[in-house]
Every structure is written in C-alpha cells, then in structure tokens.
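Structural prep section.
Before we set up the soaks we want a predicted structure of the protein with protoporphyrin IX containing FE in place, mainly to decide which crystallisation condition to try first. Input record follows.
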Amino acid sequence: MALSVMGVGASHAAAATDQKPLPVALVDALNKVAGGPHKGYRANHAKGIMVEGTFTPAKSAPTLSKAPHFAKTVPVVVRFSDTTGVPTMPDASPDASPHGMAIRFKRPDGASTDIVSISANAFPVATPEDFLALLTAAANSGPGVPKPTPIEQFLGSHPVALKFVTTPRPAPDSFGTLAFYGVNAFKFTNAHGVSHFARYQIIPEAGEQALTAEQIAKVDPNYLMDELPQRLSKGPVKFRLQAQVAKDGDPTNDGTQVWPADREIVVLGVITLKTVTADQAAAQKIIMFNPLSLQAGIEPSTDPVLLARPSAYGVSYSQRIQ
Ligand code: HEM
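Run finished without errors. Recording the tokens verbatim:
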C-alpha cells in the first residue's frame, strides 16, 4: 500500500457514507480505491496464486499453544497475493506491496485454522474506523483535487500511517524470498494453562531477497505469479513459522506498534510448499481465509482491526462468489 496506491481508481471514487455498516463501508471503500468492484475478485488482495504443502511443528510449538496443528504435521493451503483489489496489478509495482500470505492448516476431521499475514511488520492504522478514513481520503484524492488533498491531510495528521506508506518495500525476487507478519496479536495458551500474547512471523528459508531497480524495470507484470510454479518444480519452498512473544506492557491491541526486536521468539515449525493448486481460478474463488478461524489454544486479542476483519472479508466474499 505505497503512497501511489492511494490514487488508484480515484476518478471512480466517492466517499463511503456513514450510514452503511462498517464492514460494508470498508469493502465499498476498498473497491473504490481499486477502481472496482471487479466482479468475482476480492475487494483487497485480488491477484494471487494458491499452492499446497505441509506444516511440520517444531518441538517448541506446544510450549506456546495446545492447538492440535502445533503437535502434528498437517496439510496446508497457501494463497500469496498482491495488495489492493486490482486484479491486474503489476507484481513489481509499489502498489502491489505489502504482499499477502494466507495459510490454511487442515485437520483430518475437516476442521481448519488460518493465518492471514502481510509482508510488513505493522499496519498503517490502529482501528477499522481510521482504515475507512484512510481509504476514503485516498479515493477522494485523484488528479485535479486541490492541495492539500484529503490523503495528504490524513497522512499529515497520522504520522504512523505516513511512515507506513513511505517505507520502501522493494519488489521481492519471489514470494519464496519474502518475510510475512501476522501484525495483530493473539493469545496463545499451552496444555498447562499458561498464556502469552504473541504475533506470527513467517520467515523464508531461502532468505529475504529483493529485485534491483534495474530488474524491476524489466520484469513481467506477472513475474511473481509465474516464478513460484517454476521454483516449486525444482523443489519445495520453505518458511519458518515463529511467534514473537510480548513482554508485559507491549501493546497487544494495536497493530501499528512494532514490539522491540529483542522479544523472545518461539519457533513453531516449518511450512513446506510443494505443488501449485489445480484449477486456480475456481480454488481461489471458493476459499475465504479468516484470521479469526482459530482452534483451542489460540484466541483473539482485543485489537479492533483484527476483530473487524472477518465481517469485512465476509462482505467481500459474498459479493465475489456470486
Ligand atoms: C480493518 C482492516 C482490514 C480490512 C477492512 C481488510 C479487508 C480485507 C478484505 C475485504 C479482503 C478480501 C477478503 C475476501 O474476499 O476473501 C482482505 C484480504 C486480505 N487481507 Fe485484509 N483487511 C484488513 C486488515 C488486514 C491485516 C491487518 C492484514 C494482515 C496482517 C490483512 C491481510 C489480508 C490478506 C493477506 C488478504 C488476502 C487473503 C486471501 O488470500 O484470500 N488484512 N482484506
């Protein structure tokens, strides 16, 4: 969500009205910023690729949580994505970032749990109301709008959001060389009843690698979507799933606040991606990842952004599935 994305589709834009329920207003605003709605696509993270593999928990995982997938290897489905609701987003565009990694851990009995993460270790705003204000300001700041534009005014009064949109996020070499972050905190409880707040981090085993400016100028608009199947045909793509554990006093209800880097890290296990999902378009359409699809041993924090996400995702899903 680079600064430039705030102008995408602005000519089609109008402010979301206060009368709408918040999840509907959020989805409308995401659609407007993307010049949409784009029929059949997500209102955010519209362009993506789905792949499959396994998650093998580390011995340390049950020390944090008694969730069953932290005790036994399970199949996973992963969707990598470009941000915004623009289905034709060029993968190397600053507007494609932060990228998304949504993970579904499947249990043999049909139950599942999800992690829905981005390639940034913070969110630009602390509340869904501020996210709506940011999106609405962006949608109303197209060419010809007098300065200071609504988005300039918003960013001028929200320094954390300004820092987020001006942080350089170079286009990655591959989805397999990008780190992803859960951003919102969860409360993890182990079999002894001991609880900790923590945030997910998903670190590529191949290391973080970005393209040079010269490479970015030359890459194909679909290079990320095309590269992953090629990489998988040569061997598995692995990520280390870990949790950064909060210390007393660290904010657990505000995704704009990065916790200090010296906080304890608990390694949860390895995600091993092996194959590209068959029938991509249908598979991506039918699935809705939900950050609050949880299992015993993992509970939501009181972060209002986290709590607002499932209903907004549901609105987007109900629109795109028709
Ligand atoms: C109030 C804040 C937010 C709103 C309103 C919002 C809204 C949405 C919507 C409407 C979708 C499309 C859902 C679908 O059609 O299935 C979506 C997808 C997504 N969001 Fe959010 N989001 C928010 C915060 C976040 C945060 C904090 C993260 C990560 C830390 C995140 C990561 C993602 C990802 C990765 C996807 C794509 C999921 C997929 O591949 O299906 N979002 N978001």
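Observations: Residues 3-320 form a domain with the Catalase HpII,  Chain A, domain 1 fold (CATH 2.40.180.10).
Flagged for discussion at group meeting.
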